[in-house]
UniProtKB/TrEMBL annotation:
It comes from Timema douglasi. Residues 1-109 form the Ras-GAP domain. The lineage of its organism: Eukaryota, Metazoa, Ecdysozoa, Arthropoda, Hexapoda. The keyword ATP-binding does not apply. Keywords: GTPase activation. InterPro entries: Ras_GTPase, RasGAP_CS, RasGAP_dom, Rho_GTPase_activation_prot. Signal peptide: none annotated. The keyword Repressor does not apply. It comes from the Eukaryota. One of its GO terms (molecular function) is GTPase activator activity. This is Ras-GAP domain-containing protein. SMART domains: RasGAP.
């Protein structure tokens, strides 16, 4: 039983390390965000802020919901679909990637909320979530979101016509 508890703690430790490494990679990637995406995020942030002037958090939630839910989470869940690996993913690895994806998505949501209410199937995941709900992580998420939604050109005009993104 003692060995099992030690093994469980080590697995949780490794999991937290995976999440932290991915989170750091995401945070450090802000400056590589394509200019068109930055412009779209900027305009989206401005529109949301003007539509909901009493909600200061909306500028973060509108961007984090978009980039974390539509880009990062799917890439983590299906690395083969994004050419991040050529190997077939086994069920255990798939479960780990699912948990990492959920945790990264929750971290993305930190930029717009201080809520630590997270329902977890696994009891140990509540501790994992709490470990990442820190001021340091919140600041990192907000800084990432600010960078990727900054106007690439200070004198730019907002996009008046919709932009159609093609595959």
């Amino acid at each position: 039983v003692l060995c099992s508890a030690c093994c469980q703690e080590y697995v949780v430790f490794l999991f937290q390390e995976y999440v932290e490494n991915i989170f750091q990679a995401i945070s450090k990637s802000a400056l590589q965000c394509p200019a068109l995406m930055c412009q779209l995020f900027h305009d989206l942030k401005e529109l949301a802020s003007s539509h909901f002037p009493d909600n200061n958090e909306v500028r973060y939630s509108v961007i984090s919901g978009f980039i974390f839910l539509r880009f990062f989470a799917p890439a983590i869940l299906g690395p083969k679909l994004f050419d991040l690996t050529t190997e077939q993913i086994d069920s255990q690895t798939n479960r780990t990637l699912t948990l990492i994806s959920k945790t990264i998505q929750s971290l993305g949501n930190l930029g717009s909320s201080r809520s630590t209410q997270q329902t977890c199937k696994e009891e140990y995941m509540a501790d994992v979530y709490r470990a990442f709900y820190t001021d340091t992580h919140i600041r990192a998420v907000r800084q990432f979101l600010e960078i990727i939604s900054a106007s690439s050109n200070p004198g730019h005009r907002s996009l008046d016509a919709p932009v159609v993104l093609k595959e």
